[in-house]
Amino acid sequence: MTDFSYQLYSSRNFPPLADTLKMVARNGYKQVEGYGALFNDEAAVNELEANLAATGLTMPTGHFGLDLIEGDPSRGLAIAKALGITNVFVPFLMADQRPADSEGWKAFGKRLHAAGAPIRDAGLNFGWHNHDFEFRPTGQGDLPQDLILAAAPDLVVELDIAWVQKGGGDPLTAVAKYGDRIVAAHLKDIAPEGECADEDGWADVGHGVMDWPAIMAALRKTKARYFIMEHDNPSDHERFARRSIETARKL
């Protein structure tokens, strides 16, 4: 049986973190994925490490800001070592920092490749987590996701399935195209049109419009080892955690 993971960003509006970890473990998860705000200082990392041990959860994957990876890779590696993270993903690029054309995205891919060298040298995976903008063609007709990966041959992929679809891409096509580089996937669902407005149009996994049986069947043919539940704005994070893992266990 797959050990499903839970992106702790989903519960950022439901403190304290210690209670969230207990909730996640109570609902059958074995893993969690951390994100930058949880790694702000040494005390926060130490507390997170202790809470993971207390709940029996592991954290094999984590989201790290590019500023940390480029500016202080030794600190990033120290955080990863303390928490048991073996897969480091850069998760986002602010709108005002995104390249304007294909050449810019190629250059960004080279930048990621260079930034990841200390991470890879330490024996960890270094990768990129997409949103929607990587699947919107440039003015030259190229997909930023393709340009990034072509320029960064050692970069692995954490594919966020719902963001692919939000960007106008087809999840099954993306899984097939990037399958040899996908090591993790975000399982996130999109609510039917007009529903879940109070949750920004997102849905619990299996309660939206995504074809999860087909998507999971395709993902299981890739190198993906980590399947992480995420909801960007649940009104009830335990409901999301519970219903999503119930769906995933049937796939």
TrEMBL record:
Domain Xylose isomerase-like TIM barrel intervals: 23-250
Stored InterPro entries: IolE/XylAMocC-like, Xyl_isomerase-like_sf, Xyl_isomerase-like_TIM-brl
Keywords: Isomerase
GO terms for MF: isomerase activity
Highest taxon, organism lineage: Bacteria
Name of the protein: Sugar phosphate isomerase/epimerase
Native source organism of the sequence: Oricola cellulosilytica
Source taxonomy: Bacteria, Pseudomonadati, Pseudomonadota, Alphaproteobacteria, Hyphomicrobiales
